[in-house]
Design goal:
Helix content is 32%, strand content 27%. It contains 1 helix and 5 strands, in the order H-E-E-E-E-E. It folds into 2 domains: 32 residues; 43 residues, no CATH class. It has a 3-stranded antiparallel beta sheet with strand order 2-1-5, with no helix packed on it. A two-stranded antiparallel sheet has the order 3-4. It is an alpha+beta fold and 90 residues long. It starts with a helix and ends in a 9-residue tail after the last strand.
Length: 90
């Protein structure tokens, strides 16, 4: 074997080791459960949001007070929509 072949094998093994370590780190990250939400941080709301890109709309019934940003759709933050309160039907 020449020195170039040995060097190629060492470099290939190092690249393989790096790919293996990154893959396992990613799998561990995805396999870990998200942190529990404190029930005291959840507030009941009735808020509508509109996606300015595709026009989709969503109504939030409960929101986490620690999460201050609006929901995202089409990788953009949705716009809050004001709707007048509906009178209760008799």
């Amino acid at each position: 074997m020449t020195g170039a072949v040995v060097l190629d094998v060492i470099v290939a093994l190092l690249i393989g080791l790096v790919i293996w370590r990154v893959s396992w780190s990613t799998i561990r990250l995805l396999a870990s459960p998200p942190p529990d939400v404190d029930p005291d941080d959840v507030v009941v709301v009735d808020q509508d949001y509109h996606c300015s890109v595709c026009g989709a709309e969503v109504t939030l019934r409960a929101v986490n007070t620690r999460e201050g940003s609006p929901p995202k759709h089409c990788r953009e933050e949705m716009i809050m929509v004001w709707r007048p309160a509906q009178a209760p039907s008799p």
